[in-house]
Amino acid sequence: MIQLVLTTVANAQQADDLAQALVRSALAACVTQLPKAKSTYIWEGKLEASEEILLLIKTHANKLQELKVWLESHHPYDCPEVLAFNAVDGLEAYMHWVTQQTSQNR
User: Fold this and answer.
1) 86 has which bridge partners?
2) Residue whose C-alpha is closest to residue 58's, from 81, 35, 91, 84
3) I need a labelling partner for 26 at 20 to 30 A (CA). Which of 78, 97, 101, 103 fits?
4) For residue 48, what are the β-bridge partners?
């Protein structure tokens, strides 16, 4: 099963660093960066609004736990957003490609 994992970062350098590391390590087949996301939230009792980059991480379900552990230790945020969703359907060739990319040892 293919998983779509969401996380956000503060800037392009953080986004590039995470994306490249995830793909190089085969924890993700692809990471898409969507700039100019605006997040509104309460942090440490204060209302915050931040421009962030949303990362769409495509991986296989068998890599999800390892990916979560990796993000928890490498993400620049103290409490990073890490949300995973099942890809219930998709182009078979793409889903096969994601599976192949995340099963490689790099």
Assistant:
1) 3
2) 84
3) 78
4) 41
The tens digit of pLDDT for each residue in 54-83 reads: 999 999 999 999 999 999 999 999 999 999
Tokens of 14: 């953080």
Per-residue pLDDT of 15-30, as tens digits, reads 999 999 999 999 999 9
Task: List, in sequence order, the alpha helices (H) in 46-104.
Answer: 64-74, 92-103
Q: Which domain holds residue 65?
A: 2-103
How far is CA 25 from each of CA 30, 57, 58, 59, 104, rounded to the nearest angstrom? 11, 13, 13, 12, 9
Task: Give the DSSP H/E element, type plus range, for residue 3.
Answer: strand 2-9
CATH assignment at residue 59: 3.30.70.120
Per the structure, how many domains does the chain have?
A: 1
Q: How many CB atoms lie within 10 A of CB 59?
A: 26
